[in-house]
Design a protein that fits this description.
Blueprint: H1 2-11, H2 19-36, H3 42-52, H4 56-72, H5 82-87, H6 95-104, H7 108-121, H8 125-141, H9 153-169, H10 175-192, H11 200-204, H12 215-231, H13 250-261, H14 272-283, H15 292-303
Helix pairs in contact: 1-3, 2-4, 3-4, 4-6, 8-9, 8-10, 9-10, 9-15, 10-12, 12-13, 12-14, 12-15, 14-15
Length: about 325
Amino acid sequence: MAFCSLFCDSLALLNGVGVSTGEALAARVIGWLDRKGQGFPVLPLLTACSRCLASVRHMTRITEACITAYFTHAEEEGVGWGPVLASLQVPELTVDDFLSESQSGGSFLTLYAYILQRLNTEHTVANEKRTLALLNTWNSQVFPSGPYDEAKLFLWWHKALCVYVEHLQQGLGEVPAVVAGLLRLQTRLSQMGEERLGSGLLGAIGLGRRSPLSNRFRVVVRSLSAFLSVQIPSEDQVRLQPSTDQQLTAKAQQALVVLESMPSSKQYADLKDSIGKAVQFIHYPGHCLRDGPCLLSLLANLLYPDQGYLNIIR
């Protein structure tokens, strides 16, 4: 509490300066957390910035930096999200602005923490459906700026898959509606897995600029996209139980061909083993839709073992 009060007094300085000075000071705080956050009381600062900062932009950026520093500079292995959820206080009066700024500013860990808080606060099917709708909206609108923040989206997808599967298994939602949400996710994954960006006039004809995302990220999204294509044969049918008869649609076959051919490209040669394990997982007839989170966990372990914030899905 003493640290929180001290940080509130310090952060209050940002509220009384001009825009350019405020931006510079916020950038200094974020840069310092990134470089020297080890051993620093990050969580009290996390609470203080959500309590004391007037600028929602500064609030979301410093919040994201605090959460990132908490996992990056953790002195113990396996730190969890519990302390983060206890420390984050999303301002009720400006929650929409907070979420909008987090989305546009790439504060993906902050949004994930909000999702967990929301699901933990109200354990109802209606709240879960609203939360899934929110995740779908964010997922359709955001695009990682590069390798630094790309893996943060795995947390969103893992949570969405878990809730979707639970609703299907327990009959908590209409199958077509749930499948529609999963297909939207699959489509977005397919888009993110492209070598070149599809936005703009040049993107529409396949001549967009090269994607800033890493090769290992493309392995993850193409694998998960192919898996969903296999497990969802049609808009009103899903494979919720394993079976020996795994009939592949043309869409699923094409997705698997693309995935299986990746190691033949020089840029993916060093990822051959991980791709092979993903292909083996997808082809195994004992796996069904409920194993989607397990595939994501497998790929996170293989390709992003150093990201502490992913421990929750490992």
